[in-house]
Amino acid sequence: MKILFTLDDLSEQEIHHILQEAETFKKGKTYDKLVGKKAANLFFEPSTRTHYSFVAAQQKFGMQVTNFNVEKSSIKKGESLYDTVKTFEMLGFDCLVIRHPQTNYFLELDNVSIPILSGGDGTGSHPTQSLLDLMTIKEEFKQFKGLKIAFIGDIMHSRVAHTNIKVMKRLGLECYVVDPFGLGAVEEKSIDIEEAIKEMDILMFLRIQFERHGYDLSVNPQTYHKEYGMTKERVQAMKDHAIIMHPAPYNRGVELSDYAVECEKSRIMKQMENGVYIRMAVLKEVFNHEPN
Ligand code: ASP
Fold this sequence. Notes:
By secondary structure, the chain is of the alpha/beta class. The protein has two domains: 3-125 and 273-288, 3-Layer(aba) Sandwich (Rossmann fold), CATH 3.40.50; 127-267, Rossmann fold. The protein is built from eleven helices and ten strands. Helix 2 (49-60) links the parallel strand 2 (38-43) and strand 3 (64-67). The site of aspartic acid (ASP) has 8 residues, from helix 5.
């Protein structure tokens, strides 16, 4: 694996391998082959967890970390993504992590030879988020086949939902959607919110992606919370073993109540923690194809 743009680039076997690697890093395994390698993180969209868990993973490996400042770069003079990325290659960086608002931005980067890991492309994919979600689910249920998961929220604009639905179906999970906006972007089994709460093993809530709407959806936070949010009552109506997930950032009081964020059934903090180990595992993998 020299690139990671979408999970379509990985076989099921490779996905399982990355999850296993991440588990060994979580158990404390160390790896010193990347010490001193130069990583640059190019985030053209805001990010906290993805960006800084890549930084944390790079630091654990003893890599030299550079964080690209879009605002102070030649992007502001109109330089293209390709010319920016090619510059980083010529400057001697060994690998790049890129998040960009353009879906499929990586199609422009064919002529770049250094490893690139995507931190998310527009409404397309978010491969490392899905891997950390899978790791969190595996820790909980030990396997994937037959588990029922519902994605609740702004399905159409969520690269997390798109990536997860695709990969989770491959791995044998049953995927459902609760789409409050009825924008019908994915051909998935729809389910009513109250039924989802009672029936699912996993409830994955999604942020309303206002920045991608381009128009006013007129969402009233209180009404949304009442109709589709994870209230304390809904938490109490879940199956005993069922869990709550959210890729974050979450809107407290909209898709999740304060109670739901850190309640016993929430695995949201674990998702964040697992993000570091997944990013260690994918960094190791992209360099496995490079001469050490
Ligand atoms: N952090 C996730 C993403 O970058 C989810 C979100 O922003 O709502 O797609």
